[in-house]
Amino acid sequence: MAEQFSADDVDSRETLGGLKLPVVATEKWAFDSGYDSNENSLPGEGPYTRGIHEKMYRGKIWTMRQYAGFSSAEETNKRFRMLLDLGQKGLSVAFDLPTQIGLDSTDKLSEGEVGKVGVAIDTVEDMKILFKDIPLDQVSTSMTINSPAMILLAMYIVCAEEMGIDRRNLRGTIQNDILKEYIARGTHIFPPKPSLRLITDVFDYCSREMPNWNTISVSGYHIREAGSTAVQEVAYTLSNGLEYIDAAIEKGLDIDAFAPQISFFFNCHNDFFEEISKFRAARKLWFDLVTKRYNPQNPKSSILRFHTQVAGVSLTAQQPQNNISRVTIQALASVCGGTQSLHTNSYDEAIGLPTEKSATIALRTQQIIAEESGAANVADPLGGSYLVEGLTSTIYKLAKEEIEKIDSLGGSLKAIESGYQQRKIHQAAFDFQKEIESEKRKIVGVNYATNEEKENPAIQSIDSSVRVKQSEKINHIISKRDDLHCTKLLEEINQISRMDENLFPKVIEAVKARCTLGEIINSMKDVFGDYHPPSGF
User: Fold this and answer.
1) What is the DSSP letter of 537?
2) Residue 385 dihedral angles phi and psi, to the nearest 5°
3) What is the per-residue pLDDT across 51-110, written as a single tens digit (0 to 9) for each?
4) What percent of the chain has pLDDT over 70?
5) What pTM value is reported for the model?
6) 132-137: which pairs have CB atoms within 8 A and are 24 or more residues apart?
7) Angstrom distance (rounded) from CA 287 to CA 36
8) CB atoms within 10 A of CB 461
9) Nearest to 379 by CA among 45, 55, 41, 42
């Protein structure tokens, strides 16, 4: 049959990330984009374009892991138990801003922020309250924490062991991805070099002591939320992953000792087919990069396992119930793209923290996709689609070119220090915003199909007294602990920070003795200092 349309047809459109689309995706268009059906492996086979498991969700459904955390540990524990009762299989902890940047709730800089965007955790006693009556050897836990990740993981270990659960039986993930903080998010504490040291110390310790724990979740999510394109999200995330591998190998670790514990965290935005293709391209590209550069002997070292969260930045405060449709489209794309776990945002998150009602709808969305849509019945259901295969090849090629550009700048860390990724993301975000303001890109309820709001949804409120209560708890714990022992441990952390010795065991000791998060961070900061990165302009 004669070719009717070409890739440069005058009325072709673009994906959300600016990739050109034909009017009709034909076999020739897919091949011209780089697709080669002869190289297409089956699910469970390298390069894992079609999925990392042979049967995918026919063997095991993805983990439904709703992100939750607000106010106090007591309040968040109630939400966790509610979600588990509703059928959720994994927990995902959101920490408040002071915790994310290593401040105790009593710190003057914490005022006004305690418990606001997540749960406040100051000592291991808070962690024990957070997971009260939750069997940590039966539930997988993810913690979205970066700069003080080592300390929060130490608290989780001590919490579990004081419940009678061995650390070797713990399953879950610590985000522990500091590079994306410098690129896109900003909750860093220390300069990049000592921050990388803390991450590789965690790699080293967990490779020996916690075989079921993912020691890092290399995050593209926040890169995308900052305004990147799909191609940039893949390129900058995988480039950061390579930087972590290089840092661990430089430390003397064997790639097969830690790489199987590396996981990833991606965003899923509104462009259904681009997002599916993005996930497929990322799996193949990671396999190819790791295999070529490091020649691992363990097949698990080159497998890209990832969690997905739908795009918070896509949700609108206007007509918020429209967000249920957006979340459903994004969640379905995540499943068709082969995610290992998934968080679906609540429809009211552009307004405030999720209520019990909105969080339940978000979880039910996943359950409906799993049980009613049929999307989970076939591994890689859109494999072989000319559109998906062509986009997969295009994203693979463009992301690889961008990674090679970063390599030419000296790697991800050097590029970050020069502001390269920041500038590229700022430009992409600016271009996208111009499209909205010019109405070239329609956002329903914002610049298209608008109407006067008639009702406002209920908003989750935070008790403003949470800081007072946290301060009382900290003071009570300090009054009961062995202060001389704590002082000695903090001094030892300070000394080890000046050496090559692994910091993690001593941090666990300090947590067990009831040292606070802020005390431990300050003992390191005295050696490492703090960091003010380039703005990107």
Assistant:
1) -
2) -65, 130
3) 999 999 999 999 998 888 888 999 999 999 999 999 988 899 999 999 999 999 999 999
4) 95
5) 0.94
6) 132/77, 133/77, 133/81, 134/77, 134/80, 134/81, 134/84, 134/91, 135/165, 136/160, 136/163, 136/165, 136/170, 137/165, 137/166, 137/169, 137/170, 137/171
7) 17
8) 11
9) 55
